[in-house]
Design brief:
With 331 residues, the chain is mainly α. The protein is 76% helix and 0% strand. The longest helix has 41 residues. The two termini are 22 Å apart.
């Protein structure tokens, strides 16, 4: 019989809690623009995002999940306290950021929390460069590529539509943005949905329930459903910040931002690169905004978001380390 003990139950429960928070705080980024442009009502947008997040989780493979579960810290050295500490970090930091309506990256919280927890157990030797190389590439995908791709797509659309009436543009892109929002929700599931599947499976391996790291279908279904449930339960604070406060968006702007961000996310998922959906859509919105001039972006709001992104790594690394030290005393 597998050794289903209290630390394992705690690790699995906290992983699902972190996945729920991911759907609650990160997944709303995927639908923020389609709500702000009033193309879809919040209820319809949330339902669409919840369903397509699950679909994206199920049909795009497990490359990102494998990177998280086996590529960041050495799974042969760490134990369940590392998983518990990392998940506590995600839940605590995400909830604090949500309270202030600031979109944060569960991806970076998870990676930093795992890293800090791993360092508390085994020191720098537990870190794996191959996984961290993909994380660093993901930072480029989610910031530079998101910003410049959003700016390039929006500039191209301005040129292509320069002789089209505003009413025609709005009518056409009100329909097209439903597709781009769906694409964004699907891509979020393809990358973010996989991360906690990887941690859940890692916990099962560390707890002796599974002999090797191989993500079963039931784990994919469970994690995808929990993330979709989190999305369905809310996220209006994040939608308001991303969709209304950074820059004024029309359907054509929302289409450009969503298409750019979703394309970058799916490309990263294909190569097992974990990145931040929040960073992708946030920088894409900024890139779209600057095509109307730098004054079109509310840089005070953008600065607060960027500062939160910057401090996420060190703060969550420290939290993961401290939680692990405390758990070692308890367990």
């Amino acid at each position: 019989m597998p050794n289903v003990n209290s630390p394992l139950i705690a690790a699995l429960a906290l992983t699902l809690a972190a996945e729920f928070v991911n759907g609650w705080t990160d997944a709303p980024n995927a639908i923020a623009t389609v709500v702000s442009t009033r193309v879809l009502s919040p209820v319809r947008a949330v339902i669409m995002a919840a369903v397509l997040n699950i679909v994206g989780t199920l049909v795009t493979g497990t490359a990102v999940a494998t990177t998280i579960g086996q590529g960041i810290v050495n799974p042969e050295i760490i134990g369940l306290p590392v998983v518990i500490a990392a998940m506590l970090t995600v839940v605590v930091w995400s909830t604090a950021a949500w309270f202030y309506g600031i979109p944060t990256s569960e991806s970076h919280e998870l990676i930093a929390g795992l890293t800090g927890a791993g360092l508390a157990i085994g020191g720098p030797s537990v870190l794996l460069w191959e996984g961290w190389r993909k994380v660093l590439i993901g930072l480029g995908f989610s910031t530079l590529l998101g910003f410049f791709l959003g700016m390039a797509v929006m500039t191209s659309l301005y040129w292509l539509l320069r002789r089209t009436s505003l009413s025609t543009i709005r009518g056409t892109f009100s329909r097209l943005q439903i597709g781009s929002a769906a694409f964004m929700a699907f891509s979020h599931g393809s990358n973010d949905g996989q991360k906690f599947m990887g941690v859940f499976t890692l916990a099962l391996v560390l707890g002796g329930v599974m002999p090797q790291f191989k993500i079963p279908v039931w784990v994919m279904l469970l994690c995808g459903a929990v993330m979709g449930l989190g999305t369905a339960f809310g996220g209006w604070r994040i939608i308001r910040t991303m969709g209304f406060k950074i820059t004024k968006l029309e359907p054509v702007n929302g289409f450009a931002a969503e298409s750019s961000a979703a394309g970058a996310i799916l490309l990263a998922s294909r190569f097992g690169i974990p990145l931040s959906t929040t960073h992708c859509i946030g920088t894409s919105i900024m890139g779209v905004g600057v095509t109307r001039g730098f004054s079109a972006v509310r840089w005070g709001i953008a600065r607060n978001i960027l500062l939160t992104w910057i401090i996420t790594f060190p703060v969550c690394g420290v939290l993961g380390y401290l939680f692990t030290r405390g758990l070692k005393l308890i367990l």
